[in-house]
User: Which sequence fits this backbone?
């Protein structure tokens, strides 16, 4: 963790306040990378940003509000990368690979997504939560419409695909984060199992199954 920076002057203009807010989110991102979710606190974040805790609370009312704002920023980047990476007519395997590449680019985004429903949303105000619902629905709509163009599936199926891929991504990432054993210490059978349980393989193999299942459901009986 970096040494405590010098205290900063109070932001006065709207432009300065926006810049200060972005600085806080940048520091939060770095702090999560270095210290992890469980060690993240407003006190440590204040030290990292060079702000008094009272100044930090002018921008965010709680630790979870910081985390939600950071997640929203990273989700927007994810959406933009996803829309660039998915093209109409892509084979299913390539589509799932592109989805994984965009979704796993920033592990902090995945970690926050894993805690969004269980922790973060439970510790923000109703106003902030209502704003998040509107933003999330807009992102989901954009991704769903683009997936519809790329897969040819009906919009409700594409909605299910985004939700299923999100659950799969979080689950695969949690398996990926468990302690690993030196591959050379494993038996050949154990090495094969380890490879099969790798983050990308888990997502790719099961993502293809999910997509194929939705295609089969869409076929006329």
Assistant:
């Amino acid at each position: 963790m970096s040494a405590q920076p010098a205290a900063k002057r109070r932001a006065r203009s709207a432009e300065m306040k926006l810049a200060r807010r972005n600085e806080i989110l940048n520091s939060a991102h770095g702090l999560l990378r270095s210290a992890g979710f469980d060690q993240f606190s407003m006190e440590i974040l204040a030290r990292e940003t060079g702000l008094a805790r009272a100044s930090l609370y002018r921008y965010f009312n709680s630790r979870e509000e910081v985390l939600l704002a950071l997640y929203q920023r990273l989700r927007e980047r994810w959406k933009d990368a996803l829309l660039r990476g998915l093209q109409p007519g892509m084979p299913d395997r390539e589509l799932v690979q592109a989805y994984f590449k965009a979704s796993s680019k920033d592990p902090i985004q995945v970690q926050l997504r894993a805690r969004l429903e269980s922790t973060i949303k439970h510790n923000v105000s109703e106003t902030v939560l209502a704003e998040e619902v509107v933003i999330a629905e807009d992102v989901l709509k954009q991704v769903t419409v683009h997936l519809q163009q790329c897969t040819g599936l009906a919009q409700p199926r594409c909605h299910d695909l985004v939700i299923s891929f999100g659950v799969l991504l979080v689950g695969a990432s949690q398996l990926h984060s468990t302690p690993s054993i030196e591959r050379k210490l494993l038996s050949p059978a154990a090495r094969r199992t380890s490879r099969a349980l790798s983050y990308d393989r888990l997502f790719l193999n099961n993502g293809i199954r999910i997509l194929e299942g939705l295609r089969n459901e869409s076929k006329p009986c």
DSSP finds ten helices and no strands in the chain. The radius of gyration is 20 Å. Residues 1-6, 190-194 have pLDDT under 50 and may be disordered. Residues 126-151 form the longest helix (26 residues).
